[in-house]
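debug: dumping io for the single-chain case to check the tokenizer round-trip. Nothing else runs in this session.
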Amino acid sequence: MLQDSLTLYKLIVLYMLDRVAFPLTAAQVSDYVLGKEYTSFLTLQQVFSELADAGLVSSETLHNRTYLTVTEEGRETLNFFRNRIIKDIRQDIDTYIRENEYTLRNEFSILARYDKAASGEYEARLTAKDRGISLVDLTLSVPDKETAAAICDNWQKKNQQIYQYLVQELF
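debug: decoded output
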């Protein structure tokens, strides 16, 4: 019984990743799965690990976010076992993704991180992408970690206004 449940959770994760044209973060998948109370946090972490170990999902961690993408082998597996996910769950996932696509995509498309530079200052790297095309890629050097963190937080909140301002001023 436990193995059947794990298989279902794996298929749900594969289905979610297959329904979007961009990576989802582990947190985004977790929010959905845990919000529906399908399973526990620890079981879901096991699912992520087993999917990655089997090569069905690829993962990349960038500054505290783990991005998940279904692999071609994962798609093939999903296509073979898709009917094991009941129709209501598939429809619910489709509705969730349709209603939250902008928010889900924004977390992948709007990136902000900071690193300590060799000079001792910090560099805040700000990126905005749309469908994989870089719209803005900006690096700001600042004197301390707190300023770099604040810049990254503000980029997450105000990226649209900043992009519009840059376009207006530069074109």
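debug: round-trip ok. The mean pLDDT is 90.
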